Amino acid sequence: MTSNYTYSIYSNLPERLREFLNYLSVIRGKSNNTTAAYKIDLTLFFKFLKLYRGMYPSNINFDEIYITDINDDFIRSIKLPDLYAFLSYVENVRSNSSYARARKVASIKSFFKYLYSKTRILYENPASDLEIPKINKRNPIYLTLDESKGLLSSIDDTQKYSKRDFCIVTLFLNCGLRLSELCGIDVSRIKGDTLTIIGKGNKERTVYLNKVSLIAISDYLIERSQMEIKEEHRDALFISERKCRINKRTVEKIVKKYIKLSGLDSTKYTPHKLRHTAATLMYKYGNVDIRSLQKLLGHENISTTQIYTHVDDDRLREAVKLNPLNE
Fold first, then answer.
1. pTM here?
2. What are phi and psi of 194, to 5 degrees?
């Protein structure tokens, strides 16, 4: 059953790409989201190459470009200039940011490394010298403390499933959960003031629940007990109108709804921005050191967490004012 399902979702891909995606999932243990991202990047890459080499007219819709026939000879013909041409295309034609281009480079390098070192169909790795685009550091977008309180206040009992929605926003703002992590919460994984979740890369981590989070969960569980839930979704914490585990798109709509009601810009703030908010508030008001924050957020690299040190600007400004020469 699993193999048939896997084949069906990869059936329109080249054989070597199907093998690579299965390798990522089964051997490397990459999450479905990560595997899907690789699939998107490499599918676009192969479609571009066919267009770039004049195998399709320049005005064709990308969806109409067929790549299933790409074989080992085609892959062996790919050289470093082809890779740079692709990066130029996604930057200048598709307006990809440095972050998006860096992800595509990671996908390409990983794919060709697999072909070179695992399947050994390549005599040389064309991506070995491919450089990752320089990523300009940027401060995360987040809500202030007052804006966060205003967002929570916008959720009242006049709203359908108000307790569920309040609990969702509360957990985002207090625990710094990723969207996929929140959707994946199981009731059975809540023990006292701890919550065990499956994070990025299928890694398990413990999230500690503060007082307001525990109260929000407790209040919502009363509301949830009145909901009709499909048997296979009985353990899911957050339930949708369809009587099953809530999905990411529904949560995005919920957040957007209350962002609007609170008078904030709904195009600027997303569930991920609420995660930024939680991290910023913990770092700024909770005296949490950067290493602890890294663990709380489930970041693999400390460099990812360091974007939250931007809040030190207030402390630095105060330190300058306190200089004894400032009289």
1. 0.64
2. -120, 145
Tokens encoding 3: 């193999």
Number of domains in the chain: 2
The 10s digit of each residue's pLDDT in 153-185 is 999 988 889 999 999 999 999 888 889 999 999
Q: Domain containing 71 — which CATH number?
A: 1.10.150
Q: Is 197 exposed, middle or buried (0-12, 13-18, 19+ CB in 10 A)?
A: buried
CA–CA dist 62, 82 (Å, integer) = 18
In a domain? residue 40? yes
More confident residue, 233 or 134: 233
Domain region containing 255? 145-314
Question: Is the domain of 66 the same as that of 158?
Answer: no
Active site residues: 178, 200, 272, 275, 299, 308
> Is 100 a domain residue?
yes
Residue identified by tokens 């629940």 is 209
Which helix (H) or strand (E) covers residue 97, if one does? none
Q: Of the candidates 101, 119, 137, which is a domain's last residue?
A: 119
Report the Cα 146 to chain-centroid distance in Å: 26
Q: Are 51 and 60 in contact (CB under 8 A)?
A: yes
Contact 242, 186 (CB under 8 A): no
In CATH, what number is assigned to the domain containing residue 292?
Answer: 1.10.443.10
Report how far apart, in Å, the C-alpha atoms of 70 and of each of 53, 116, 148, 207 are. 13, 17, 51, 45
- The pair of structure tokens assigned to 198 is 């499956």
Write out the E strands in the chain.
190-191, 194-198, 204-208
Identify whether 215 is part of a domain: yes
How far CA 193 is from CA of 156, 277, 299, in Å, comes to 25, 21, 21
Count of CB atoms within 10 A of residue 276's CB?
21
Q: Are residues 289 and 155 in the same domain?
A: yes
- Answer yes or no: are the C-beta atoms of 145 and 283 closer than 8 Å: no
